[in-house]
Amino acid sequence: MEKTILHKASTRGQANHGWLNAKHSFSFANYYDPARVHFGALRVLNDDTIAPGMGFGRHPHDNMEIITIPLEGAIEHQDSMGHKEVIQSGDIQVMSAGTGITHSEYNANKDKALKLLQIWVIPNKQNAEPRYGQTTLNKADRINKLQEIVSPGPTDSGMWINQDAWFHLGSLQKGFQIDYQIKKSGNGVYAFVIEGDVTINGISLNKRDALGISDTDKLSIMADSDAELLLIEVPMLK
């Protein structure tokens, strides 16, 4: 029988440090909710707003797959693998931390806020070789479609992670209906509404709401307004 868990936007954890206003879908830093530690292999989904010129100084990660999606503005990134990059809105960045990396992330703009989603996925292999990928997405490929942006690796695109997980973005016009078929039996999907209003498997969602669905093979998605949607399909770890 299908299982669902509804995370309304207003129920997320929040940490407002002035320069950083972070909303946490799952337990993170000083926010802890034993009922919201992870959804399967999805461990973190942070919805961050970072003030002009501010950011995170160099810090370490290991054994985690890290996906960053800037929604507005641009990120200035540097890491111990030698990368010095700017990731713009419309781009996506993927890092496998593996045996260990350090990196820094700053708002590249001095005059406007940076808004981004940072997502962590628990890998299916420990101590992998650290890896970096970045690409510019074609926004036309997700108008009334589900555009695959991350898949299990390795792939030629570089936008892959060490997990049987798939990420899709959709820009859906009001009244459009589309189905999403589960890629791997036993996986679940965490659907996060970036903008607008959608109904998924009969459950209404608004901006920044999320719905975790497992024990099903299909999602039926209806756009109740023009909407931007992120789907994260992951194994349902215990």
What is the topology?
Blueprint: E1 3-7, E2 13-16, E3 20-24, E4 42-50, E5 55-61, E6 65-72, E7 74-79, E8 84-88, E9 91-96, E10 101-107, E11 114-121, E12 131-136, E13 146-152, E14 160-161, E15 166-172, E16 177-181, E17 187-195, E18 198-200, E19 203-205, E20 210-214, E21 218-223, E22 227-235
Parallel strand pairs: 13-14
Antiparallel strand pairs: 1-20, 2-3, 3-4, 4-11, 5-10, 6-9, 6-11, 7-8, 7-10, 9-12, 13-15, 15-22, 16-21, 17-20, 17-22, 18-19, 18-21
How does this structure look, described?
This protein has a single domain (3-235), classed as Sandwich (Jelly Rolls). Helix content is 0%, strand content 55%. It is globular. With 238 residues, it is an all-beta fold.
Number of domains: 1
Overall mean confidence score, pLDDT: 96
Given helix and strand content, the structural type is mainly beta
Shape: globular
Q: Which strand-content bin applies to the residues?
A: over 45%
What's the CATH H-level superfamily name? Jelly Rolls
Do you know the CATH topology?
Jelly Rolls
Unreliable spans: none
Radius of gyration: 17 Å
Distance between the termini: 17 Å
Secondary structure: number of strands: 22
Number of helices: 0
Please list the strands of the largest sheet in the order they lie side by side.
1-20-17-22-15-13-14
Just name the CATH architecture: Sandwich
Q: Topology as H/E string?
A: EEEEEEEEEEEEEEEEEEEEEE
CATH class: Mainly Beta
Q: What's the main sheet like?
A: 7 strands, mixed
**Helicity, as a percent range:** under 10%
